[in-house]
Amino acid sequence: MWLTSKIKQILMVLKPGVVTLKYPFEPRPVAKDFRGQPAWDHHKCVGCGGCAAHCPARTILVRDICQELRIMIYDGARCAYCGRCADVCPEDAIVMTEQFELATGDRDDITVTMELFMLTCQRCGRCYNMETTNMIDKMELKGFRYDHLEMRAVIPKATERFDAKVLEATERYERPRT
Amino acid sequence: MNAVEVARKLKEEFGAAVRATDSPSPDRLFIDVERAVLRPVSNRIAALGGRYIVSIGYDEIARNGTLGLVHTFAFDADHWAAAVRTSAPASDPLFDSITPDIPNAGWSEREYMDLLGMKFVGHPKPKRLILADDWPEGVHPLRKEVPYNLVPPAAEDVAYRLDEAPEGTAVIPIGPFHSSLHEPEHFAVYVDGETIKGCDYRGFMTHRGIEKLCQTQVSYNEVPFVAERICGICGSVHATTYAQAVEAAAGIRISRRAEYIRTVILEIERLHSHLLWLGVAGHLIGFDTVFMQAWRVRERIMWLSERITGNRKTYGMVVIGGVRRDITPEIAKEIEEVLAGVEKETLVLKKSIIGDTSIHRRTKGVGVISKEESVRWSLVGPVARARGIDIDVRRDHPYAAYDDMTFDVPVVTSEDVWGTLVVRVLEIFEAIKILRQALRNMPSDGPLLAEVGEALPPLRHAFSLVEAPRGEAAHYVITGEENRPERWRVRAPSYPNLQAVPLMLLGDQFADFPIILGSIDPCFSCTDRVAVIDARTGRRRVLGRQELENISRRGKG
Question: The domain containing residue A133 runs over which residues?
Fold first, then answer.
């Protein structure tokens, strides 16, 4: 009994032989529609921030540093590669590439920063007050945007009701260095 | 006994103490009771045949100054589930513990002692479960007023107090970091010679605060992607369970085609999980041929899921209202081809290992827990089916497209680790069977995503059950007002099964510890999902060492 099962196992192992790929030396093509590193097309991007509002990992940030300059930052270190940004982009400016070899010692290697020149109204000097039915507005669900003051207001500020002492200790506390 | 009868019976027996019953769908019954009768009502439901699932605590202080508590029960033979709801004022959060009667409620109740500051009268082991030992007293992280990113200062001089070791035993600490555990958890095993006499468990070291995060920061449609990351194996199980719960709460109906695609994804996940487990089990008993071969077979399934979902794992497929990607005829053909290969190879694998005496010797009669005890401890999944309990959510509470599938639920009565192995191997073939049916019967049209309205109705309760490869996953959702759940409770299958491990270990040899623990396919991360601070590596290390030092000192003395 013992011997027969061992012989069976040897046969089972011999049949497929070696299946290990010579991966780093021979590249392995990924499947079609693979979700790798997302790539932005700055020609197509209109700066609506829909990707930032829908990113589950909060890895796309939007910053308006002045009236006419919007900076979009993609921080790949936190990306979950879900491809949600590519799904919601109304201009198809985001594609999921086949790039998956992203291990790096430098975070900047996988960080993408895009500076967009935004138009403002010639008459009032503010950004366009868009109609409420357009695509961009539809996408702005109550998500989270880095600097979106209006949307920040809906995020509950728990701290108002919380024990001030514990909160202060939290703010003063420094994490142990590893 | 169906939901209507149970509701009538409870009203008759408890009178006005049962405030209201509500049945939003034929397979769900919500019972609102007075706090005083929580324990008798729960016991009555258990006596009528209800299998305890999980308890849910939630904070309603801002709304009406109360803390809510829900016990959920499944009636598997009659295809429905019940939830017993009650509440207590936050100034006096006393509830009667149901743990003395239903031991599996122990962790749920300890969880809410930590996270919501509830108090349970008569709890047999009211120790800390979730929070770190140096977390300040009186700060209950799941309460709404506590910020999600609160980091109280660490303390150096605290340690978890393990249970007293039984007379004449030595303590062997396993973990927090140990080669036979895949994740940081701490077992203190009390041994007399080689025989295990008891065990204390201190886990929840991989807290990531997922529930709090999703209740305060992300929105409905982002939660599935967070839910997937609860577990490295059953990703789309958690996403599906969550999506189903929200769909049930908001009354969203998804297309039949989307349901079929969900079924396909879930079964592919089961295939890969069972093959993975088979490999790990082989590895744990020192039989690495099984490990290598099972994982070789599994690799084709991983490539297949890369083709279907765009990722090696079955991630990123499920959203509220349906699925994101289609299964085209080409992909269906590829699935068929892979299935044929996997079926053939698994059959070879099965034939060559099932008669192997070394596997028999290492697994038969090991980790025994009787059927009565398993029922009492509400075990789920293959662990329960190996103890002769005939439950399977896919058949008992059909979801997705499982009501169209015909399949067998393998049940064995050996009550040991061997049984779980047999059940899992047989389920691989059942999964292949289901996949073929699903591909054959899939409707060819229908939208992948159902239209979801702008705002989901707030404060609706719903829960859904899904059969994960390891057992039953349960998610309870209370919809909220800010485009995110007000409360989202995740119960992974390891949560009930892990609680019965000390019982399984009793009287076994110490060398069998890894395979007994491995037999439930424990997923510590799933179990730990709830915690509220991200464990900081530095502090965790200090804590672990001290704990270990304390234990070793006591062991010597």
Answer: 32-146
